[in-house]
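User: I'm preparing a small set of examples for a lab meeting where we compare how different chains pack in three dimensions. I only have the primary sequence for this one, and I'd like the structure in token form so I can line it up with the others. Please keep the answer compact; I'll paste it straight into my notes.
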Amino acid sequence: MDYNSESRKEYDEGLSLDMALMYLKKLVDKWWLIVLSSIICALVGFIVARATYVEEYSSKIMFIASNKTQAVTVAGRSSADLSASISLAESFKYVFTTTQLSKAVADSCGYKVTPDDIKRFVSVDSVESTAIVNLTVTTTDPKVSYAIANAYIDNYSTAIETAFPNTSLLVIDPPLVAEKPNENRSKLVYTAMGFVIGIVLSCLFIIVAVMFKDTIKNTEDVTNKLGMKLLGVIGRVGKRSKKDVPRQGILVTDKRSGFSFIESYKLIRTKIEHVASRNDYKVIIVSSTVENEGKTTSATNIALSLAQNGKSVLLIDADLRKPSVAKTLGFAATDDEGIYGIISGSKTLKESIKYSEKYQLFVLVSNKAYENSSEILSSAQMEEIIEEARKEFDFVIIDTAPCGLLADASILAAYSDTIVLVVKQDFASARRIKRAVENFENSGTEIIGCIFNDAESGLSSSFLKGKRGAYGYGYGKGYRKGYGYGYGYGYGYGSSRSKKRAKKD
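Assistant: Understood. Below is the structure token output for the 505-residue chain.
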């Protein structure tokens, strides 16, 4: 399975992109947390702004700068004079906050303020591309603001003449006493800041939580954290519109599942056939650590892929508490009792197994749930069922309950040849998966490998591209062994001719 440098580089780039997509998906999945956090932080910002708000009043003076010693009209200035005046306006701004002028204003304003207070109360700005300078005095008392502004009018000329001889700064709009407080922008500013901070903090929290969450995030984690072989990567299948959603699950027999999805299971099938032929494996358990990792979908598609390759395959639904194989295949198995029917003695193995002409697949399924699943599966009849099936089929694929939740999978492992473990990307913790693997190891049954499920789409494509040379996709001549039991055809698939043939058999 050697990679050349170019393939490895492409694979690593795909891995990095998929990690980024995974984090993005987590952010999208947790949108409600981001929205809630931003709203809470925005509310906090609003409350802080309201609690800390103090009414302020401003008095404003408007000046016009000139490079002449006497006042002239703007219309009478030359272009050079106007340019020089604009430049002076920028320079005059700094004169108003000098210590000397601030002290003079503090001493003459009639209120007990310091030069530092004056500097803090005053803001100066020039209007762009003009010779106009605005000085604004803002305090909590409108009279104080007005008095300081008037003190500037009384004292600024000396400071200007000292700093810039042969220039002038004329008052064109004198100050007034503020009749109402300044507009309160702090509520809007603090609320907006809180909203942004809430988004940033919640996103950081989600990303950090994902980073430190001990889950299987990529294919390298399968090897490094679990020490398991990777059978294949199944990419996330995009959601379909409601009109396109079939009654059954996502299957390799449905072209709408996508090329990558179908080819991934063909690759898994090839690897299973390769290992099975070397070790004479027939009975394969498919399980996962916890619920909703895609074990039933994987078990069903492995069985279908093997059947497509000409093998006689029996798919057994041994997840007795939550059977779902029939639903995944689109079967109406309401009257079938599956494994329980055989063990209870109400039906024989021959009567319980059905054959689907559509899928060319034998199934032992039920839609009925049983709480005492461990007792049923640990019975002597269960081992007899598997041993009899082993003799009649090329492969027996068993879908079990999650091995990290129930003992059912470990019980069945004792009757089986090997195990396929399904691991969903960034779902179950690595520690929990390891504990589940240990339970299987105690049974003495080998885990053939891991299916990395529901991965970001690019990762499965990268895996297929990187591994394609390792195993071929060849369809050997294969065969479907005749099944002498003559089980009745079920679930309404296939032509009327096939139904008659099934009855005749």
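A couple of notes for your slides: The chain has three domains: 5-52+185-211, 57-173, 213-474. The CA atoms of residues 124 and 335 lie 87 Å apart.

User: Perfect, thanks.
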